[in-house]
Amino acid sequence: MIKDLILRNRSYRRFDASVKISEEQMLNWLDSARLSGSAANLQRLRYLYTVGTGKCKQLFPLIKWAGYLPEWKSPKVSERPTAYIIITGPATTNGMLNMDVGLAVQNILLSAVEDGFGGCMIGAFDRQRIHDVVSFSKGLEPLLILALGKPVETVHIEDALNEQDVRYCRTIDEVHHVPKLSMQMIAKKL
To answer: How far apart are CA 36 and CA 148, in angstroms?
Structure first.
């Protein structure tokens, strides 16, 4: 059921680095992105991916992990992602492109979760240095990075106490806690 996939689709930041993602799996997930809705059906997104190659090592230090966890810098070597997707689009555009990114990423992540994998959307990366590692097609810029792999962490969704109580945290037992606003806080009947 789709809601089960949604509940399992969390922002995972620690993976089993020994479990690889196949090229076939990656292409299947990217096909889910290809089939996503697109504003005016312009289909302006392009995807650069790597599965278990040296590029993963090159991309890793360019990423900033978990802004709410300043004491935790990044996954250990044994917990690093085994694949990345860099979503690219036109350097100058209107806000509609962001909707396309959201739709595509959600489809990719739900497909990955269905296959027993997971990922994390990363908008905090070194936009200057990434050009040293990746060649982008003319007129395209990196918009978002997806880190992917076999999750090794437990993520627990819990009710937020109020609208300011949205900071995720990790407890001493390594459980990642994510507060979510209640339906009463976010939905009102017209």
So the answer is: 19
164-180: per-residue pLDDT in tens? 999 999 999 989 999 99
Q: What is the DSSP letter of 77?
A: G
> Which residues span the domain enclosing 167?
154-190
Strands in 117-162 per DSSP E:
118-122, 140-149, 154-159
> Of 170, 145, 131, 153, nearest to 60 (Cα)?
145
Same structural domain, 140 and 54: yes
pLDDT, tens digit, for every residue of 55-110?
999 999 999 998 888 888 899 999 999 999 999 999 876 778 999 999 999 999 99
Q: Using CA atoms, how far apart are residues 31 and 134, in angstroms rounded to an integer?
A: 22
* CATH number of the CATH domain containing 160: 2.20.180.10
Contact indicator for 15, 150 with CB cutoff of 8 Å: yes
Same domain, 180 and 124: no
Q: Are residues 130 and 164 located together in one domain of the fold?
A: no
> Which CATH number do you get for residue 100?
3.40.109.10
pTM over 0.85: yes
